[in-house]
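Possible regression after last week's pipeline update?

I re-ran a chain I had predicted before the update to compare outputs. Posting the input and the new output here so someone can diff against the archived version. Not blocking, just want to make sure nothing changed silently.
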Amino acid sequence: MGKPAKAAFDAKEFLEKLGAGKSILEFEKNENVFTQGDTADTVYYIQKGKIKLTVISKQDKEAVVGILGPGQFFGEGCMNGHPLRIATTTAMEPCVITSISKQAMKTALHEQPAFSELFMTYLLTRNSRIEEDLIDQLFNSSERRLARMLLLLSNFGQEGAPQQISPNISQETLAEMIGTTRSRVSHFMNKFRKLGLISYNGHIEVNSSLLDAVLRDRPELKEDE
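New output (post-update):
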C-alpha cells in the first residue's frame, strides 16, 4: 500500500502561522518594530497594516525611504550579513506581523522551494522598484514623482482592486518620499483633485485617469522646476 501524498507547501499559510523560529506580533500605530542601529537577526512579513521605513543621516536628518504593506517582507538585510539595522521601521496603523528568525528563514529557503520562490520574487520586485525610484528621482519632475507614488501606494497594477490610501500617510511623508516640500505636494494634490485624477473622502482615492496621465505623459503632469 502506497504512502499518502504530502500536501503541497503553502507559503502564505507558513508565513501566517506560528512555528519553530516564528512569532506573530502585533504593533500599535507609531510603535517601532526595530530602530536604526539595532541588532539584525530577524526577517519580518506583514500580514496586516502598513510599515514606514525611515533613515537618519549623520547630520540627524530623517528621510522616509519606503512604505510597505501586506504581503511584503522587511528586515531581510540580516540574510546578507548586515549585523545592524540600517533603518527604523514604524507602524503607521495597527499591524499584524510575522517575525522569522534568521535560522528559521535559512531552513525554510533550503527546504521549501515554494517559499524560496516567493521570497526571491519579492527581492527581485523590490530591486526593480529601487531602480525605478532612482530613475524617477533623476529624470522626472516632482509632480510626476508624486503621481507615481500615489499609484504605488494605492496598489495600481497589482492583484485586486486599487485601494484607498490611508490618511496616516501625510503630505509631509509624501514630500519626504519624493524629495520635495510639503507645500508643493499640497499644490499638486489640489491640482490632481481639480482635474479629477484623485478624490478625497477621509482617505485619498486614486482614479484610473491618473494612471492614464502618467502612462501617456499628458501635459497636466508637466511642470517647470
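Follow-up from reviewer: compared with the archived run. The two ends are 75 Å apart (CA to CA). Marking as no regression found.
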